[in-house]
Amino acid sequence: MSPALIISCIAVYFGILLLIAWLTSRNATNDSYFLGNRASPWLVVAIGMLGDSLSGVTFISVPGKVGVGHFSYLQLVLGYFIGYIIITQILLPVYYRMNLTSIYTFLRERMGPYSERTGSAFFILSRLFGAAARLFLAIGVLQFFVFGPMNVPFEVSVFVVIGLMLVYTYKGGIKTLVWTDMFQSLFLVLGVILSIFAIASAMDLGVGELFSQAWSSDNAETFFWDWREKNFFFKEFLGGIFIAVAMTGLDQNMMQKNLSCRSLPEAQKNIRVFSVIMVIVNVFFLSLGAMLYLYADKIGFVIPVNENNVPVTDHLFPGLALEHLGTFAGIAFILGLTASTFSSADSVLTTLTTSFYVDFLGKDKDTASSEEKKKRTRTLIHIAFAILLGLVILCFKLINKQAIIDTVLLIAAYTYGPMLGMFAFGLFVKRKVLDVAVPVICLLSPVLCYLLSTWSVEIFSGYKFGNEMLIVNGMITFLGMLLCSRK
After folding, report:
1. Number of domains in the chain
2. Domain range spanning residue 11?
3. I need a surface site. Which of 36, 111, 178, 221 has the fewest CB within 10 A?
4. Under a CB-based contact definition with an 8 Å cutoff, are residues 35 and 101 in contact?
């Protein structure tokens, strides 16, 4: 597939995003930017959240990792489903009752300003690094197949993509994003479906027969029962529950869209529908991975290796789609990748801006400044975070050595753990914590988790920490806060 055709597809796609942004951001105010005037249709939010949760990592990394981890990722996804139920029944009622713009305002009301800023700081860290990891993967693929052959440096590619996101997000904020994300989520799913049809055609099989072969292959092994390994069922399942609670329910990026719904019942309905769609779509992604490996075996495709001679599984899907499956599959892949890239990263700029604007600057309580001055402050923060995001992506190019899905989950374990502990304490314990001690506790907890993870094989007879590290991190934070509290 030629670079010119790929660029043309991206240009048309981006043109549609600009049109949506123009239609939705006219007469936008601060309330439009932060909460969409609390008028977002719940079904639009539910579909849009799909793209936010899946991103380019799921689109590329999950199918590729099937060759290494088989369908073990489904254990994690089943845990997600339970986590979303917890969000609808416990967290959303609290957020709506308190009429929040930033969910970390809950920590201020319950424990104090140090706790609020600590929660917001960990969100900023987690989302900044998580979004950078996702964008690094997607831009890396475009660089390898498009911009690299055109002699465009990776650094230029990064800031072109960041600039494109700025153009359609800086003005409309959430009011724009709920609609652009719905559009992008639909294209993400369409990219998967079209890719499956392309593989079936290339292998001269019906779609049903292709699914049958994929689910009967060795890669379809789903449940793992060795308690010492990272993919042990209960590690993955319980980790999935708490990852969903932390990365959705305690994440300003995900919750800000939910808080833009018209009412609590609509927001709860949105999460319930989203949770079902999420499981189904991930089953399709895993099936696609097994199908890609079947096709790779048939044509003798060899996955490239890195400098350590480890297969780079993230190159499986793009390599087959853009070089072996034909133009139709290539266009389907580019549409899906572009949709997943922008949908997962564009809202991050808006929600990072919200968290800093509200939790650190306290501008939501500023009644002296004019609307124009507030808008100017908000825009400068938005642009600053875009530049910072670009710089973090360049750092990933230097240090990342594993499948990006593993990198994202590792970042989540260390950064969302303290938030999990803080919110659990605030919701379920009726004691007063020493607010000034909270930042120290939340910094020590990830350090202790890192040491525990490093020494676990020697200490616990070969036991390897996986996604349950998030739970351990949260528990350490919770216990630390309990020790620094009084009636």
Report:
1. 1
2. 3-421
3. 221
4. yes
In a structure prediction context, what are the per-residue pLDDT tens digits for the chain, which is 487 residues long? 667 777 777 788 778 777 877 777 666 555 556 655 566 777 777 777 776 776 666 777 788 888 888 888 899 899 999 999 999 999 999 999 988 878 888 999 999 999 999 988 888 888 888 778 777 877 777 787 777 778 888 888 888 888 877 776 666 566 677 777 777 778 778 888 888 888 888 888 888 899 999 898 888 888 888 887 778 888 889 888 988 898 888 888 778 778 888 889 988 998 898 889 888 988 988 998 899 889 888 888 877 766 666 667 777 887 888 777 777 777 777 777 777 666 666 677 777 887 888 777 777 666 667 777 877 888 888 888 888 888 888 887 776 555 555 666 677 778 888 999 999 999 999 899 999 999 999 999 988 988 888 776 666 667 777 777 888 899 999 999 999 998 8
Rounded-to-integer distance, Cα 48 and Cα 59, Å? 15
Structural tokens at position 356: 């800093």
215, two tokens: 């689910």
| Neighbouring residues of 430: CB distance < 8 A, sequence distance ≥ 6 | none
pTM here is 0.76
Gap between the Cα atoms of 474 and 451, Å rounded: 15
Q: For residue 350, how far is the Cα from the chain centroid?
A: 14
Residue 446 lies in a domain: no
Q: Which amino acid is at 90?
A: I
Nearest to 142 by CA among 330, 348, 349: 330
Tokens found for residue 58 = 């799921």
Residue type, 311: P
> Measured between alpha carbons, how far is residue 249 from residues 253, 310, 391, 408 in Å?
10, 35, 28, 17
Judge whether 472 lies within some domain: no
Residue 365 vs residues 107, 109, 198, 349, 368: alpha-carbon distances, Å? 16, 14, 54, 21, 9
Amino acid type, 391? L
Q: Tokens for 340?
A: 């997943």
Nearest to 294 by CA among 223, 221, 224, 211: 211
Q: Are 394 and 158 in contact (CB under 8 A)?
A: yes
CATH of the domain at 371: 1.20.1730.10
Least Cα distance to 148 among 250, 258, 3 occurs for 3
In a domain, 378, yes or no: yes
Q: Name all contacts of 214-221 with Cβ < 8 Å and 24+ positions apart.
A: 214/287, 214/290, 214/291, 214/294, 215/287, 215/290, 217/290, 217/293, 217/294, 218/70, 219/66, 219/67, 219/70, 219/71, 219/289, 219/290, 219/293, 220/70, 220/71, 220/290, 221/70, 221/71, 221/72
3-class DSSP state of 305: strand
Torsion sign, CA atoms 228, 231, 236, 239: positive
